[in-house]
Amino acid sequence: FFVAVVCNQPPSIENALHNAPREQARFPAGTELMYTCRSTYTASGYQRAMCKGDGTWSGPKMTCTKSDATEPETDCKYPGEVSNGRREGQDFRYPAKVTYFCNEGFQLIGNPVRECQLNGQWSGSLPLCNPIRCEKLGPPLNGFITGSGETYNTVLRFSCPEGYKLVGSAERRCMSDGEWSGQLSRCQGKYHSYMYVYIYLSIYI
């Protein structure tokens, strides 16, 4: 059977960054990365790396030498944190990137990646992690609902009074995609079999 060849983390070059996402840990064979030196450093040598078919990297063969320019490195300062989430990335110097992730049950609003720019400012704005919400559900017609809320992992239970039959799901959960599990619940028909027995007995006995 076919087994896909992948490479692990690419080589690390002092004072250089590659163009792959920071959180990516595995790279398919044939992946090519480009390395660039940090601000105020000059690159020399071969700046590309490729994942080979045997799962190893070829290249880069480069060095980053401090430039003669006296201007300091661009520092973008502290990029901020998100409530109900986390940030990955501790380097705040150009051209570094930071990436934001939300905790389970929350969805990210905005761009998850911010880049340190030459002007010392972070690109974009700090994203938000908002609770995942499902459409509000009420009790079935002629029935009852137990529980309340519409945020992620909320569980609602449905039931019918005596003489009615529950059609659909007796329990539904708000899922991570913002949809309820199960099917729409309703209380169907009223069963009068006990009345028929009573009438039959009244007439024929």
Automatic annotation (TrEMBL):
InterPro entries per UniProt: Sushi/SCR/CCP_sf (IPR035976), Sushi_SCR_CCP_dom (IPR000436)
Disulfide bond entries: C37-C64, C102-C129, C160-C187
SMART domains documented for this protein: CCP
Major place of residence: membrane
UniProt-annotated location(s): Membrane
Record's GO cellular component terms: membrane
Alphabetical UniProt keywords: Disulfide bond, Glycoprotein, Membrane, Repeat, Signal, Sushi
Keyword Metal-binding belongs to the record: no
Protein name as it appears in the record: Sushi domain-containing protein
